[in-house]
Amino acid sequence: MSPTTPEPAPVAVPEPRNTGAALELLVHGVGGTTPAEMLDDPRAVRVTGDGTAAVYRRATDLRAEGEPERFRDGPVPEAYCWSNLTSGNGTRALWLLLLPFMVVNLAHWMRPPAAGHGRSARLYGVLVRLVALSLTVLLTAAACEVALDLAAWQCAGAAACTEDRSWLGFLAASEGGWWSQPGRRLTVAAAIPTALVALLWYLSRRTWTAYEAQRPPRGEDEHDGRPALGRPGFWYGRRLVARLRAAHTAAGLLTVAAAVAGAAARHDRGADGTLPAALGRCIEGALAAGAVVVVVVVCRRGRSERRLDGRLDRTLTSWLPASSAALLLLAALYASWSRPGWRSSGALPGDAAFGVLTLGQGVLIVLLAAVAVRLHRRAPDPGTALHGLAGPAVAVLACALGGVMAGGVAQRVADLLDGPGTPGTGNGPIAGPPLLLSWQAAAIPVLLLLLLVPTALLAVRTALTARRLAPVVEAEYAGEAPDRIRTRRIAGIRAAAGLTDAAPVLVGLLAAATLLLGAGGVAGTWGTGTVPGEAFDGAPAFLDAAAEGCQALGSWLVGLGFLLFVTWGRRAYRDASARRTIGILWDVGTFWPRAAHPFAPPCYAERAVPDLAWRMASWTGRTGGRLVISGHSQGSVLAAAALWQLPHTTRRRIALLTYGSPLERLYGRWFPAYFGREPLAGLHREVHCWRNLWRRTDPIGGPVRLPAEGGKPEVDHPPLRDPVVYGRTHDHPLPEPILGHADYQADPAFARERAALLDRLPPALPLPVPQQRGTSPEEAGGSAPHGSSGRSSG
């Protein structure tokens, strides 16, 4: 519909016919809401579920299935609340540590469609999993850099650094104690990165039971032709997560062991003894073999979605971490062996390790981009974000986030230990962090400067669009007295809502600039051997000053970012509202299962989708009634995913009502293999009826762009007016708010479209005979009382 075309007058919809039992299953969107708000009744009672996710009804509707007169005026509403899956107790603040892991996990699901190109799809998955593995090594290496290099090796080995730090006294070389030898200092400091790896392993294992252990129902029509989200094993990835958890845990432990044993082995190779040198070579060889095994395990198996795979590779998942822990213990014993003449000086050779790791990430991402381009060219879709390169671009951002976190903590600790000196310049008691981290920090001001140009262009474009939309807005409210301020505000909100569609351009530019600057950082580190502020000594004054300014400003920005990160996490731990904000950010990122990184925040959809599928299947199977599942925002994505999991006979008794839905605008463009045009068109064909409500002022939701097909009408309703009334009237004496993404149910079109969907569903089967006294509420077609067992199905 053209923007200048006035919205047609609403078509009169007849009153809903009494065709038997009817249920409206409401699913909220990001940020969540309370059951009382969803049901518009303070007496909401939990029907089934637990404190994390549950279905609620109004107290008066608990036994509605046994009272047919309740369905004469419309469906009985039920509310599925899942907000506690992403925002709960204070431990959720720890999820901020997992942000790079979550982002790289998204890259896995951004693969272009691969129908008939299974090998390329598998290669894409392998490359993403290797990038994810590199992030685990990077985070562990950053912890080793802080604890082993900066604290135990550099500061504890310099009297000027330990004299004012009593907490390092027992490790200080100047004290000459038993722990003062470099190898023993490294062994003590290794407890910190080892504890970090153990914490990640624990979080991944614990959250599996709470979030991802719910098995989806088995459909009657399971076959290879089902869409990916409808496959039996899509929402049950236990086997893969367990394998990846074992591999990443082993990789972290092997990284710590290499940092501990590597320094001792280098010392022994330069000493006279042959036995310690041979032992060091054996340990390093064992660590290299362990690293090869980890890489093979990560590459060997991806997701198995075509069947519900309940197996668990117990030998692998227990043997691999245990062997790595044994190698770490052996490395600690080897490094702790007495070497009286050994002294620590300078820094541990971390530059080479960080440089190789960064270079490896760049190579993997370039290969990933080549595979993505190949897949996209075989089945091009103009609506796909970044022409199929969304996954590689997001993988770059994940690596950048990991680098910023690593560089931030290293820079802050180095600043604390170096006193008045500047880390990396040699004018303080310690040598400072690896040079590569300084080069990466210096690239941040350059990156921000480059982003100013597209940001300014977008701001200008938004202002021009708002000006162009002003007459369009007035034309849509023809017959009302124009108000310049009101018109300008409506047009401005519409124009700002369109910025969502510019996100792919910004992400692409940011990823390209980050990749180039990262390559420049590696080249600068290896080519100059010094920090950026000193690398340009002798160059023109402007260039020299720019390099020094970028290094100083970048170090400050990285440190500030790290402090803000810690502050936000601490506030989220103590403040429920802040924790809820973090949960909103996680609602989109953790919809997808952990397919690439096992330490990513848990996937709430592996709990929510089976919950919804079980509820719809059990209610329609028990009552034979009509069901409308109403999903707002992210809830519409959960609703669609749950419908794909249902058998064909059940889907034919269900109508889908979506509003404020990002199904096409966000998911269809960024995740085309799963929510692209073909999967959504298939859902339109398979579900009995589907209607989508949207507004032009909504920055998240939008049309799904599915035309009429097979006797079914177009999915999209014409865009809803927002605000409903332009100015003051007798019926609306106060200005109506511009709702944007919220309160779709307040629009009269919502009730009309819901009634129309119910009328199009086949009549309900006769209700069962009311049960006799003593029958449980579940058997009676009603509900378990508040505080019931908490099963995820009705």
Automatic annotation (TrEMBL):
Transmembrane keyword on record: yes
Cited SUPFAM superfamilies: alpha/beta-Hydrolases
Signal peptide: none
Region (Disordered): 761-794
Keyword annotations of the record: Membrane, Transmembrane, Transmembrane helix
Record keyword Transmembrane present: yes
Organism domain of life: Bacteria
Transmembrane regions: 93-111, 123-143, 186-203, 246-265, 277-298, 319-337, 352-373, 385-410, 437-460, 495-517, 553-570
Name recorded for this polypeptide: Integral membrane protein
